[in-house]
Design a protein that fits this description.
Blueprint lengths: L1 E3 L9 E3 L21 H23 L8 H22 L5 H12 L1 H20 L6 H5 L4 E3 L2 H4 L13 H13 L8 E3 L4 E5 L2 E10 L2 H7 L4 E8 L5 E10 L11 H8 L4 E2 L3 E4 L5 E12 L3 E12 L5 E4 L12 H14 L14 E3 L4 E5 L2 E10 L5 E9 L5 E9 L1 H11 L6 E2 L3 E5 L2 E9 L5 E8 L6 E4 L2 H14 L17 E16 L2 E8 L7 E4 L14 E7 L8 E2 L2 E4 L10 H4 L23
Parallel strand pairs: 3-18, 26-28
Antiparallel strand pairs: 1-2, 4-6, 5-6, 6-7, 7-8, 9-11, 10-11, 11-12, 12-13, 14-16, 15-16, 16-17, 17-18, 19-21, 20-21, 21-22, 22-23, 24-25, 24-27, 25-26, 27-29
Helix pairs in contact: 1-2, 2-4
């Protein structure tokens, strides 16, 4: 409809019903222009893609390895980045959907092909790793031998049994740091607490960490100044101060961060979580196990050697067979996972779902045992039926992965923990996850009983096959003595097995004249500190619970103090016994330790060190 208006037209407005509406003229679209030449655009696109990739690599640290799942995400990110840059620099040329599609296809052909190849590779790799098709390979990841408990598991002396779990060690570590005025305001204790064998004794070692980012900034030049060693038998906590601080740790930032340091040095390696350990000289290291995928592209996780990183200098080296002092190459989680593959699939995948003949799994907890120079993982084995009994247990060397299965029917660890708590239910103690020990040729669960503050108060032993046989004691020796008497009453052992064999240890000794005595009460125990004449510091510490004669010592007494190898810290020695020079004693030392030198001379320490008290730290 067309409307006409004219001021001089006598007829006024006129409407033309048949006229077509007039349309606005279309504005011509300016053609989009590409940036520079084709070679220049490729260079710009490539530089931006590399910049984005470098930032992502620095932050996320993906392994450049086809077996690493994160590598595919990294590569796809690079392809997407290049495509976006290419479209932007080329001006989004094209008309209509078909035109745009043709343009995008032309500009991104190479990234599309690379992305498609990566996706196909990942799909094929995942298919070839599928446990349904490769169940036989999964069950063969962990070679297992059968063993005999009574023939291969030696009885362990009660003074070598680890009494602390990780939670209790953390409490002691935090308390120790609180005593150090020069450190507590700037540092915290890391949560590592790695159990290792150090000088033949089970200990937990953990580094410090910075309190926050500001404290890191203020202390980063000197590094972390110390680490803690907690003796799992005596519960002593030693702060090992370093001349040069640890500058390569998980608490660092930027290039000194351990993960970044590893990735830049070994860009193609995949690593397990680094483990903090110390060698026999006390040098701190990070043990970084090299992870490999052995089934298809993504399945069959296993470790092959380890990279050792000096926490002070950052020097690193890969060892296909790590040194003997290294205790953790295969993590507990990896060993448990591999056994569960064996237990479920050794009769085929479908048997694990239908029928479940001879299908077994590990129990839901584990612990560590010291054996020789190594640390062994202990965990129980039970059937998949969900019953409350174990059919055996595993011991696996965490350095070599040598694994043995020991048939031993009995209660599960959690049933034993409940039995132990039932003995002291009025005290409301909680039980730690147990260790499995050989006590008089009887498989025995041993556990500590803790109060609400996570401090160890008592100990318990539970017979595996008859978990109603439970013994407790304030000390490990008392607990074992009570347990042996209960075994005797139940006709499980003979009379000659009912007594505890005294631990066979070579004691070292040091003589001196007491110049000063001080006392303190620590966790309810009376502790005595001795300073010998000629020394400016206190060099001997003894507990009245272990050395009954300690409260009777006087200033001026000339004494010979006996101590075990490994009980010397940077501050003092921990005495196991003491004798007066006139021969009157509370408890006689071993014959080999009692053969002292003539008056005025000190017996020699092990390794040729003189026993003069002035030579102690």
């Amino acid at each position: 409809m067309d409307i006409k208006f004219s001021g001089s037209d006598a007829n006024g407005f006129q409407f033309d019903q048949n006229a077509a509406p007039k349309s606005k003229p279309k504005r011509e679209r300016k053609p989009r222009k590409s940036i520079g030449s084709k070679a220049g655009r490729i260079a710009v696109n490539t530089l931006i893609t590399l910049l984005v990739g470098a930032i992502y690599f620095y932050v996320q640290l993906p392994a450049i390895n086809l077996h690493a799942e994160e590598f595919y995400g990294f590569a796809l990110l690079l392809c997407i980045t290049y495509c976006i840059c290419s479209l932007l620099t080329s001006g989004f040329q094209g008309t209509g959907a078909k035109g745009y599609f043709t343009f995008v296809k032309k500009q991104c052909t190479v990234p599309f092909l690379v992305s498609a190849l990566l996706i196909v590779t990942a799909l094929i790799g995942a298919l070839t790793s599928w446990v349904v098709l490769r169940a036989k390979d999964y069950q063969a990841l962990l070679p297992i031998e059968n063993g005999s408990f009574t023939e291969e598991i030696d009885e362990i002396s009660y003074d070598r049994i680890p009494m602390l779990d990780k939670d209790s060690a953390q409490k002691l570590g935090d308390r120790k740091l609180g005593e150090l005025a020069d450190m507590v305001s700037q540092f915290e204790v890391s949560a590592d607490y790695t159990q290792i064998n150090y000088h033949g004794r089970p200990v937990r070692a953990t580094p410090l960490r910075y309190g926050d980012i500001i404290k890191w900034f203020n202390n980063r030049s000197k590094g972390l100044p110390a680490y803690l060693v907690i003796d799992m038998v005596t519960q002593n906590v030693d702060v090992v101060r370093l001349d040069d601080g640890m500058k390569y740790t998980t608490a660092e930032h930027f290039s000194h961060n351990l993960y970044r340091h590893l990735r830049f040095a070994y860009p193609t390696y995949m690593f397990e979580e680094p483990v903090f350990e110390i060698d026999e000289e006390g040098t701190p290291y990070w043990v970084c196990a090299k992870k490999e995928k052995t089934i298809g592209l993504f399945g069959g996780t296993d470790n092959h050697g380890a990279v050792l990183v000096n926490a002070i200098t950052g020097e690193s080296e890969y060892y296909e067979e790590p040194p003997a002092w290294v205790d953790h190459v295969y993590s507990a989680e990896l060993i448990v996972e591999q056994y569960n593959y064996y237990g479920q699939y050794h009769n085929g995948f479908w048997n694990s779902i239908f029928g479940q003949r001879d299908v077994t799994v590990t129990t839901s907890g584990y612990n560590y045992l010291a054996g020789g120079d190594d640390v062994y993982l202990y965990t129980g084995v039970t059937s998949v039926g969900g019953d409350e009994s174990n059919i055996g247990f595993l011991l696996s060397n965490q350095r070599t992965k040598e694994t043995k299965y020991y048939p031993c029917a009995g209660a599960t660890e959690y049933s034993a923990m409940d039995s132990a708590k039932g003995q002291v239910q009025n005290l409301r103690y909680t039980a730690t996850f147990p260790l499995l020990l050989n006590i008089a040729d009887q498989p025995t669960y041993f556990m500590a009983l803790k109060d609400a503050s996570q401090l160890v108060k008592m100990y318990a032993m539970v017979n595996v096959s008859q978990y109603q046989i439970v013994a407790t004691g304030a000390t490990v020796a008392d607990c074992e003595a009570n347990y042996r008497q209960m075994l005797l009453k139940n006709n499980l052992i003979s009379n000659d097995q009912s007594e505890i064999d005294a631990p066979s240890v070579d004691l070292m000794s040091v003589e001196g004249t007491i110049a000063e005595i001080r006392t303190a009460v620590v966790n309810g125990n009376s502790i005595y500190f001795l300073r010998f004449a000629g020394n400016d510091t206190f060099t001997v510490r003894m507990s009245a619970a272990e050395v009954a004669y300690a409260p009777l010592l006087n200033v001026g007494d000339h004494v010979c103090v006996y101590f075990r190898d490994g009980y010397v810290t940077e501050n003092w020695i921990d005495a196991s016994d003491v004798t007066l020079s006139d021969g009157s004693t509370q408890s006689a030392p071993p014959a080999e330790a009692a053969d002292s030198e003539p008056d005025g001379e000190s017996p020699s320490l092990e390794g040729g060190q003189a026993g003069d008290a002035s030579l102690l730290p």
